[in-house]
Amino acid sequence: MTVTSLSQREAALHAPRPFGRLVAPHLSGLRAFLLPLGLLLAWQGLSSAGLFPDYLLPAPAAVYGELATLAAKGELVAHIAITFWRVALGFATGALAATLLGALIGYSRTARDYLDPTLQALKAVPSLAWVPLFILWFGIFETSKIALIAVGVFFPVYLNLMSGIQSTDRKLVEVAQVNNLSRIDLIRRILIPATLPSYLTGLRSGLALGWMFVIAAELMGASQGLGFLMVDGQMTGRPAIIIGALLLFAVAGKLSDALIAAVGRSLTAWQDGFASSQERANA
Amino acid sequence: MLEIAQVTKAFADGAGVNHTALEQVELSIGEHEIVSLVGTSGCGKSTLLRLVSGLEKPSGGRVLLQGRSVTGPSPAVGMVFQEPRLMPWLIVAENIRLALLDLPRQEQEYRIAEVLEKVGLSGFARALPRQLSGGMAQRVAIARALVRRPSVLLLDEPFSALDSFTRLKLQEHLAELWEQERFTLLLVTHDVEEAVLLSDRVVILRGHPGRVHKILDVELPRPRRRTAAEVQGLKEEIISTLDLS
């Protein structure tokens, strides 16, 4: 470690980001659209060539037309909105409960001994098995749907948070001990940041399950929502509606996941993993 | 100023069987003294350091710092581990602040700037640990241990993970810091040459459980040259003592 290498490092630390670094994300963002766009074109082409029967797989243009009609009547927005609302409410409820319990059980040995075995046993119940009970308890309207989504979201968030807290590096916790950190400082400066990556993983898997269970709930009985739209399409023999709803689910799921991922990336920018080494290579 | 009196340490393993790591260790260290602990791996030298730091409690005997029994970590004792152990999510200044949280904010800022200057990393206060080389990260760890101006500094094989050139630089740097601060220094090391170069006394631990086997005085003027015949002679003597086990 010579003086020059030190000052070089220091200079690199304060250097402005190279131009390529600013442009590259947009380019690589565009790359992601190539495959879906290609598939869409191929699908349209093959449909026009008469390869797929219309009553099974209508062309993209037909799907778009069907969705546009629904949108013009104002129904599409209402369906999308109610589905989003259910996922949001169920996700918030499930994630909040999982965060409180996961934090408590991950941190406290006593709480873990009392509560974790029961929660692990409940996890073994397939989430859909709760449906009859929830309908009995909460009726067939919103509450039972939200409850089902919340249960689906709960477990991945809970498990990831709890194991994240427990697997915090003992060596870093010892630094807190040596420096006589208060309990609050230990939690705030060490446990929370150390746990954040696995907590975010939990939130993302929880959200994915939330989308899965909103369809389950809407397929089983609803008068509105994207899941209802699919059942309706099936009943009335309109495959374009089913496919349209599928595509909307894909977009909605991807967008909401990207939102969490973006928030997560800004919170865990300190991480030095494979992805960050690729970023540097591209810059 | 640091008394290790009849200290025994036993650990219970998973099966509940006790293993004795240290037995009846007796060692007295004076103010401003530099003492190295050397010994084959598993002789309990790191355990001894952890007992002095207050991270572990002795099963028998006592550790006394300025006449008072050590019951837990205190700002009077600084500790540097084999790894830098920096929080990867905190910038350098915030990592050092971990040692200062009970002081007023202004005092924290002043001390952080002062200690970074001392270890030669003033320009790196806002760097994340991943932006530092191994040697720089270990300097930050030393800064974090020194920022409370401890009367005792404990180093647990602090340079063993570094390349040899960086290790030499940091050894020199440590000697300079000691000249300025005059803390009592207790150093665990595998590197016999490092022990001879830096220490006033070299304590050789041996056996399972570990006991003090021999204590060698290094009465050579500082700064010491690595290649000096006396240094090499003492090094040979220690290595042959270690080999006998």
Characterize this entry briefly:
The complex is a heterodimer of chains A (283) and B (245). Chain A has 283 residues and is mostly helical.
Tell me, rounded to a whole number, the average pLDDT of chain B.
91
What letter string, H or E per element, gives the SSE order of chain A?
Answer: HHHHHHHHHHHH
Percent of residues in β-strands of chain B = 25-35%
State the secondary-structure class of chain B: alpha/beta
Multimer state: heterodimer
Overview of this structure, please?
The complex is a heterodimer of chains A (283) and B (245). Chain A is mainly α and 283 residues long. Chain A is built from twelve helices and no strands. The mean pLDDT of chain B is 91. In chain B, the strands form two sheets. In chain B, strands 6-7-8-3-9-10 form a six-stranded mixed sheet, sandwiched between helices. A four-stranded antiparallel sheet of chain B has the order 2-1-4-5, with helices on one face. In chain B, helix 5 (164-181) links the parallel strand 7 and strand 8 (184-188). Chain B has 245 residues and is of the alpha/beta class. Chain B is built from seven helices and ten strands. Chain A binds chain B through residues 1, 5-7, 9-10, 13, 171-172, 174-182, 185, 189-190, 193-194, 196, 268, 270-272, and chain B through 53, 55, 72-75, 79, 81, 83, 85, 87-90, 94, 98-99, 101-102, 120, 123-124, 126-133, 135-136, 144, 165-166, 169.
